[in-house]
Amino acid sequence: MSPVGGGNWWIADIGAASQDSPMPTYIPIETGVHLRAVASDILAFEWKTNGIAADFILPDDAAHALRVSFDRPCIVRLSDEMAISTEEEDTPNEGLVPNHFAYRLEGARFSRDQSEVWKDVSGPVTQYQFVTGWGCMDVLTGGSPSFSVVRRAL
After folding, report:
1. The whole model's pTM is what?
2. Residues 6 or more apart from 3 whose CB is under 8 A from it?
3. 100-116: per-residue pLDDT in tens?
4. In Å, what is the CA distance from 46 to each residue of 81, 95, 125, 149, 154?
5. CA–CA separation, 17 and 21 (whole Å)
């Protein structure tokens, strides 16, 4: 902050913080399954002893779901109503692909804001994001995602 006109008024340099923050970069991941992301949603989520599993709607297949799983400890954020932004990034998002489901992220705030101790113990860690028309799942983990098609509980 700097004084204005020698008085008691101060101006904050708001742009300085965003210049120091890395730009979030989205790297699309192929799941091996055609999934129209805008027509999908999260069906189920399960914590496991060392990992997670989440099932997502396959819009063109009512009998099956796409399971995304990790076999390492994870920090997870589930958000609904993707039309409402839950995180204001400091800079534009690079690499987003229309109607794409799975990404690896670099430099996003969610990862930067997590415990450095946890990241050191679990590391190296990577942030993944799975985007649907109605929800979003962010995962920070030292593992890699596995994708499989599973029978959907009806």
Report:
1. 0.80
2. 9, 10
3. 999 999 989 899 999 99
4. 20, 29, 20, 16, 17
5. 7
